[in-house]
């Protein structure tokens, strides 16, 4: 361990080698600090995960897309020699609602004018309401407590009058947050939209968060960061206990314990809640961690010799209410070979799906792909699934959300350091909260906090 003498002492210990933790470690290392990163899994990247699809190519089972205004993660990737390419988006999308499959172009499906009007009005209302919520301090928004006492479902029932518009908003929320609208604090959702710039930015492909992908897969960013950090990154070392005393901190992980001046905890709040802290973090922080719950999102990928749907003039994108898969995308590598169809299963449906036997899970998802894209979808060469709610060191995905009533009361504790412990992670970001962009920004912010607190600026 070259920059951690004896392997047990560091200036800063970073808990978690996802994007947030690795970015914090990189920045602290650049400021000539000794850093030790302790990661529970036997790999880096956390909620980003590449999966092999043969021939040295990969598809992604976790976070993957980037879009306009996600500047920090894209410039980081560029620095690391990782380029982006556009998500395949030529042709028509599919909408399968109430048993009827329609083809359409762009984000707005072909629906009856009154339904389109309803969707348009709900989106405008959401944009307006989110504009009044500052993502850096949503608890200061006008009527913050009132907004926090409502769920997104309550809002949708009022804002959208048609069944189809409500159904589409429910499906979009499931894919974006991994939960149903009834589980989400309205204030949190408005803050989330505000941090992204607009609801459209969250759901759009062209001009939105699904616009581009990373060549070689998003996990490469973390892998390259970890390579540069070398032996400072220790894998398979879940942190169990963090004790603070006047002289610093002691961190106990499986197989290693170490001392440091500062700790950056870069794990999602429900994972941080499983670490034992001495002295306790205090009621506010603890209540916060008890009230942020992860969504449940499962990604299913079917790999075919070629992306045959492209020949049929289809983008590979579909929205369907004939469940368990609710949305699909073309997730093929940049050269379109092999063809990869990706499906999302969200919320309680993801939990139910995980209980099925493996063969049954595959059959059900492929049936769905076949109904949408025809018989060639029935027999992929490879079928992959990652159920994030079943992952011990994520406990869900894509993001943790506040249940109603908690953000206004305890939100302030989300980023505020607790003594010498600093908090990072996508959930703590004020720009693109919950996204890779947010994770990167949160790592940068936590590193700056540590450098300022210790007067370690070069
Ligand atoms: C299915 C899915 C789809 C997504 N899609 C997108 C997308 O398209 N675009 C986008 O921008 N974002 C997307 N996201 C979100 C994005 O992946 C995350 O916001 C981002 O990767 C979070 O990074 P992080 O470093 O904050 O947390 P994580 O990646 O969760 O990293 C935390 C790390 O801490 C480790 N850990 C946990 N507990 C401990 C412990 N006690 N001790 C030591 N280590 C511990 C974990 O193993 C993990 O490696 C998606 C996520 C999922 C799951």
Outline the structure in words.
The protein is an alpha/beta fold and 458 residues long. The protein contains 15 helices and 22 strands. The protein has helices at 19-30, 71-79, 113-131, 144-148, 152-159, 163-177, 186-196, 199-203, 219-229, 269-272, 283-291, 348-355, 358-373, 407-410, 436-454; strands at residues 12-15, 35-38, 50-52, 58-60, 84-86, 92-97, 100-104, 212-214, 233-234, 239-245, 248-253, 256-260, 262-265, 276-278, 292-294, 297-304, 314-320, 327-330, 339-346, 382-387, 400-402, 421-423. The strands form six sheets. Strands 7-6-17-18-19-16-20 form a seven-stranded mixed beta sheet. A five-stranded parallel beta sheet has the order 9-2-1-13-22, with helices on one face. Strand 1, helix 1 (19-30) and strand 2 (35-38) form a beta-alpha-beta unit. The longest helix is centred in the first third of the chain and has 19 residues, at 113-131. The two termini are 23 Å apart. The protein binds flavin-adenine dinucleotide. Residues 15-21, 38-41, 46-48, 62-65, 238-239, 266-268, 271, 275, 297, 299, 388, 393-394, 397-398, 425-426, 434-437, 439 line the site of flavin-adenine dinucleotide.
Total number of β-strand segments?
Answer: 22
What's the helix count?
A: 15
Distance between the termini: 23 Å
Helical amount: 25-40%
Strand content: 15-25%
**What multimeric state do the chains show?**
single chain
Q: What is the general shape?
A: globular
What spatial order of strands do you see in the largest sheet?
A: 7-6-17-18-19-16-20
Structural class call reads alpha/beta
Which sheet architecture does the biggest sheet show?
Answer: 7 strands, mixed
Mean pLDDT, all residues? 95
Radius of gyration: 22 Å
- Low-confidence region ranges: 1-6
Which small molecules are bound?
Answer: flavin-adenine dinucleotide
């Amino acid at each position: 361990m070259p920059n951690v003498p004896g392997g047990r002492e560091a200036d800063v210990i970073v808990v978690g080698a996802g994007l947030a933790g690795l970015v914090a470690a990189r920045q602290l290392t650049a400021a000539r600090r000794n850093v030790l990163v302790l990661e529970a899994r036997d790999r880096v990247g956390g909620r980003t995960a590449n999966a092999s699809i043969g021939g040295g190519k990969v598809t992604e089972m976790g976070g993957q897309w980037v879009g306009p205004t996600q500047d920090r993660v894209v410039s980081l990737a560029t620095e690391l020699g990782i380029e982006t390419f556009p998500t395949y988006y030529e042709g028509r999308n599919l909408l399968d609602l109430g048993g009827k499959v329609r083809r359409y172009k762009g984000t707005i499906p072909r629906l009856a004018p009154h339904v389109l009007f309803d969707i348009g009005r709900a989106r405008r209302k959401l944009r307006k309401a989110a504009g009044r919520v500052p993502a850096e301090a949503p608890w200061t928004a006008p009527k913050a407590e009132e907004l926090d006492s409502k769920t997104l479902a309550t809002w949708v029932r009022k804002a959208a009058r048609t069944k189809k518009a409500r159904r589409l908003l429910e499906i979009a929320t499931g894919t974006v947050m991994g939960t149903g609208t009834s589980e989400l604090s309205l204030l949190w959702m408005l803050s989330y939209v505000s941090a992204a710039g607009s609801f459209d930015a969250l759901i759009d492909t062209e001009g939105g968060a699904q616009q581009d992908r990373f060549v070689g897969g998003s996990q490469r960013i973390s892998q390259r960061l970890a390579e540069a950090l070398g032996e400072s990154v220790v894998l398979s070392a879940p942190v169990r206990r963090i004790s603070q005393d006047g002289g610093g901190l002691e961190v106990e992980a499986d197989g290693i314990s170490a001392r440091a001046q500062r700790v950056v905890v870069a794990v999602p709040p429900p994972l941080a809640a499983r670490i034992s802290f001495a002295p306790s973090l205090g009621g506010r922080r603890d209540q916060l961690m008890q009230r942020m719950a992860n969504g449940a999102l499962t990604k299913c990928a079917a790999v075919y010799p070629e992306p045959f749907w492209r020949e049929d003039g289809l983008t590979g994108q579909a929205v369907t209410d004939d469940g368990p898969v609710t949305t699909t995308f073309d997730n093929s590598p940049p050269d379109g070979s092999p063809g990869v169809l990706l499906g999302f299963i969200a919320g309680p449906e993801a939990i139910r799906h995980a209980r099925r036997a493996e063969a049954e899970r595959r059959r059900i998802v492929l049936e769905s792909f076949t109904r949408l894209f025809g018989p060639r979808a029935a027999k992929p060469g490879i079928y992959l699934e990652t159920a994030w709610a079943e992952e011990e060191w994520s406990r869900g995905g894509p993001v943790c959300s506040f249940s109603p009533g908690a953000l206004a009361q305890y939100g302030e504790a989300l980023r505020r350091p607790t003594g010498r412990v600093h908090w990072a992670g996508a959930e703590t970001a004020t720009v693109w909260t919950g996204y890779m962009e947010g994770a990167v920004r949160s790592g940068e912010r936590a590193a700056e906090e540590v450098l300022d607190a210790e007067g370690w600026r070069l």
